[in-house]
Amino acid sequence: MQNFFLITANMMALSGLQHCGILTARAFSSSPTAPFSVLHHLRPISSSKKIVCTCHQKQISPRQQLSTDGPSGSDTAFYDVVIVGGGMAGGALACALGNEAVLADKKILLLDRAKRPSKLTRENLGSDYSNRVCALNSQSKKLLSEIGAWSAIENLRCKPFHRMQVWDACSDSMITFNHPDLVQELAYIVENDVTVSALTEQLNTLHNVEVKYETGLSNLKLPMVGRMDQNSWVNLTLKDRSNVTTRLVVGADGANSEIRKYGGFGVTRWTYDQSAVVATLHLAEETENHVAWQRFLPTGPIAMLPLNGSQSSLVWSTSHEAAKKLVLMSDDDFVEAVNHAFWDDSHHVASLDVVSQIFGDFLKVLQPDDSSSVRQLPPSVSGIQTGSRAKFPLGLGHAMHYVKPRIALVGDAAHRVHPLAGQGINLGFGDVVCLKEVIVQSALRGEDLGSIGSLTEYETQRQRHVVPVMMVIDALKRLYSTTNPAAVFARSLGLQATNALKPLKEALIGSASR
């Protein structure tokens, strides 16, 4: 899951981010390049040996060297836009472009390495759930609704949740999020496969979008820098040896993006010395199950996200060694470990409770009690879905630029974040909305869709949004990876203060929806 909530990240920024030493005023500068510059101040949590910075490198193999050759011969197919990567971001972009009336005469190609996904129905979904899910916010839902995919998702399955509770294993501090009526959804838990299936169904209805499955790149040639006339398209050679030219190629091909490498984009990235363990859990008792739970342990956050009345999805970030043990242990031992992680108080700092109590009494004077902020107990886990356990490494990655002449990056190809805030695909869908609008405006003005003058607006807008989010998530990871008394004290009181101030919480909920 790329997945938990920016509300938490924003809130934690207010509750002790200054202690992490990575935010500077430049993050909020009006300069288009300010967010880009600020990212240089991020540093890996562990040894510097873990960082891989390619700011001044072009990670291109000999066969991938950029060429200044002109377009291919007459047997080459032409498309206005070629999207490489058929995942959620790539599929959503293809749908978004294909649904625009102003682009009705444009040819769009989507290349997907994977096989054509089987059509999902309620019948063939069965009772088992995928262990890869996303928490889609209201803006992601809006995009999927506009391109016609959300109705298909609802017809398959998704689980809205109305409340979120986040708490610290080292103290009694916690925060809850919900809308005042306790009815409006905060977000929706959706399996990745369900989202892809809904996008595929919509792609099949678009006359100007062609999808090629089981198709990858074997080469890509870019025009000479400064040459942007009609004879300077991007040339792509596919694995099936066919040739394609295009005005604009979009890399939506994930964290190890080929398009990013072909384009020579610099990348800053590091590992977190952590893996995420995912699984589908069976709850001990059936309930409405409309609360998302997240607890910050010293070894990493653990989250339980509702799937239905009796099942939830687990995302547990921990050390590589611990993750390996969790994946290999017996089902019974795993269930015991999950319950222990949510309920154990061995990390509790008792001396902090007195201070927290005094501070809490003071906050009650400022803000009357709010019944919606009452602490709830997480459900107990009784079992796991067979074969649902898996793990994957965690890290941060950021392309120094999102665009170059005739190339744009979206989703994980441009930015990769820790899953603790659940913003991976929501950021990717934000890229889709922004890039689609930039392309539409270029078409309305009669401009070249691949010109750097048009594409720069996409990079500027998205980096101003994405870089601060990445910094907050990275800082939050650091802040909650320590038992240092000063850090625990700062984050605990900050958590209490934020939870007590309703206007601040409501502002954070609104921020996380954008």
Automatic annotation (TrEMBL):
Its job: FAD-dependent monooxygenase required for two non-consecutive steps during ubiquinone biosynthesis. Required for the C5-ring hydroxylation during ubiquinone biosynthesis by catalyzing the hydroxylation of 4-hydroxy-3-(all-trans-polyprenyl)benzoic acid to 3,4-dihydroxy-5-(all-trans-polyprenyl)benzoic acid. Also acts downstream of coq4, for the C1-hydroxylation during ubiquinone biosynthesis by catalyzing the hydroxylation of 2-methoxy-6-(all-trans-polyprenyl)phenol to 2-methoxy-6-(all-trans-polyprenyl)benzene-1,4-diol.
Membrane topology label: Peripheral membrane protein
Organism: Stichopus japonicus
Name of protein: Ubiquinone biosynthesis monooxygenase COQ6, mitochondrial
Family according to the record: Belongs to the UbiH/COQ6 family.
Stretches assigned to the FAD-binding domain: 79-351, 399-467
Pfam family, one: FAD_binding_3
Source organism, top-level taxon: Eukaryota
Keyword match Nucleus: no
GO molecular function: 2-methoxy-6-polyprenolphenol 4-hydroxylase activity; 4-hydroxy-3-all-trans-polyprenylbenzoate oxygenase activity; FAD binding; oxidoreductase activity, acting on paired donors, with incorporation or reduction of molecular oxygen, reduced flavin or flavoprotein as one donor, and incorporation of one atom of oxygen
InterPro entries, alphabetized: FAD-bd (IPR002938), FAD/NAD-bd_sf (IPR036188), Ubi_Hdrlase_CS (IPR018168), UbiH/COQ6 (IPR010971), UbiH/COQ6_monooxygenase (IPR051205), UbQ_mOase_COQ6 (IPR000689)
Principal location: mitochondrion
Places the protein is found: Mitochondrion inner membrane
GO cellular component: extrinsic component of mitochondrial inner membrane
EC number(s) recorded for this UniProt protein: 1.14.15.45, 1.14.15.46
